[in-house]
Amino acid sequence: MPSDPMDSEAPSNLARRGGDGRLEAPSNQGRLGDVASVFRELWHYRDLLRSLVSRDLAVRYRRSALGFVWSLLNPLLMMLVFTIVFQVVKPQSVRNYPLFVLAGMLPWNFLAGAISGATRSVTGNAHLIDKVYFPREILPLSVVIANLVNFLLSLAVFLPLALLLGARWNGWIFALPLVILIEVMIVTGISMMLAALNVFYRDTEQVLEVALTAWFFLTPVFYELELLPNQFLGIDVWRLVYTLNPMATLVTDYRYVMLYETPIIRHTLIPFLIGIALLGAGWWVFRRVAPAFAEEV
Q1: Helices (DSSP H) in 123-244: which residue ranges?
Q2: What are the distances in angstroms from CA 99 to CA 81, 163, 164, 192?
């Protein structure tokens, strides 16, 4: 394998040049095909994936005086704002409210940052699309992984801080990797779909900004779900939120296992199933339309 996949063409069994000189995707690029072959292809281009992740992390903190500290400083500042508003202006009876908010902001920032960046990942790398063949899903994947690295580093700082400030753990803390995995599946699936959609409809980014803002306020990041009425017009509001909004369940799970010695809630099965469905659908859609990327970007 060449030392840098971006500097030479892929092996002949993976791609070929068309009559116009552009690299064409292999024949199985437009369908999901054998799952094992998909992972083999991604493994073949692992150096490119690693390079793109490193590039994304480097660009994010280039010429930044604080560097990675911003990954934690941003949610800390938001935590300060929400603490002032909801503990001073409009008090809430939430135990250790600053930790409560921070435990919700960290996973939310991972989701919002990964989805927003991944949506632009294909259109923002048009020069690579024409230059060399590689599995196009590497582009949104690299953004998701880069944001996941930031999220995990932030958790590495937050967890000991939470213990110092009064959080309590039990055996359920070991469920944290499962909660993270479910969120990664959801984020990856949505990222794949939106990255593909944005190639053909550039308004996707603007619509996404509005959608993420609405999703944020519909997710109990800075408030307890119990603030909402349990019953409205005969509808179980809490159950409806947990069922239709997987992040409501996951944010609650993060708090329960990292702060309150409480098991993950029974609704966690729903985000798990949603994550599997989104990941499968997102990957299928992306690979289905990927052959047309070179013409559209």
Answers
A1: 126-131, 138-164, 176-200, 204-218, 237-244
A2: 13, 10, 11, 32
Q: What is the pTM of this model?
A: 0.79
CA distances to 41, 198, 224, 255 from 248, rounded to whole Å, are: 35, 26, 10, 11
Distance separating alpha carbons of residues 118 and 187, to the nearest angstrom: 10
Q: In this structure, is the dihedral angle defined by the CA atoms of residues 120, 121, 123 and 125, taken in order, positive or negative?
A: positive
Report whether 188 contacts 141 (CB < 8 A): yes
Q: Are 183 and 177 in contact (CB under 8 A)?
A: no
- pLDDT tens figures, 53-105: 887 777 766 655 555 566 666 677 777 776 666 655 455 667 788 899 899 99
Assign 232 to helix, strand or coil.
strand
Identify the H or E element spanning 235. strand 235-236
